Structures are given as C-alpha cells and as structure tokens.
C-alpha cells in the first residue's frame, strides 16, 4: 500500500505590494482606545496602577531621605 500524496499550500506576498504593513498600523489608536474602553479595570490594575505605585514609592523614599537626619535613635 502506497502512502497518500501530501498536498502543500504556499502563501507568498508580492514584492510589488507596498502596503502590506500599513493595514496593520493604520488602526492602532482606535484599536487601543477600544481595548482600553472594554477592559478598563484590567488596564487600571496592570498599566496605570504600577506607574502610580512606583511614583508614590519614590516620593515617599525621597521624603524619608530628607528627614533621615532628624530621627536618630538615642545612644544607649
């Protein structure tokens, strides 16, 4: 029994087609806005939340660094 013949599908792009990537980048602002609008809770927790927390931590650290010399423990 002979093995069945396999068929092959090949997809190629024409080298003369200049707008292959433009379609991908054309709607980025609208797509991003739609995704954020649909998933605003996730965007808040995983995109905005870490940025705000990092800024908050940095400001707190700088404030503690400025006040470090005032709170030295008493000797003994």
Automatic annotation (TrEMBL):
It comes from the Eukaryota. GO terms for cellular component: mitochondrial inner membrane; respiratory chain complex III. It is a single-pass membrane protein. GO terms for biological process: mitochondrial electron transport, ubiquinol to cytochrome c. Its main location: mitochondrion. The keyword Ribonucleoprotein does not apply. Belongs to the UQCRQ/QCR8 family. This is Cytochrome b-c1 complex subunit 8.
């Amino acid at each position: 029994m002979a093995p069945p013949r396999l068929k092959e599908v090949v997809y190629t792009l024409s080298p003369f087609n200049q707008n292959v990537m433009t379609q991908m980048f054309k709607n980025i602002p609208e797509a991003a806005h739609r995704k954020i609008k649909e998933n605003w809770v996730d965007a808040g927790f995983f995109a905005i939340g870490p940025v705000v927390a990092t800024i908050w931590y940095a400001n707190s650290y700088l404030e503690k660094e400025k006040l470090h010399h005032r709170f030295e423990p008493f000797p003994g």
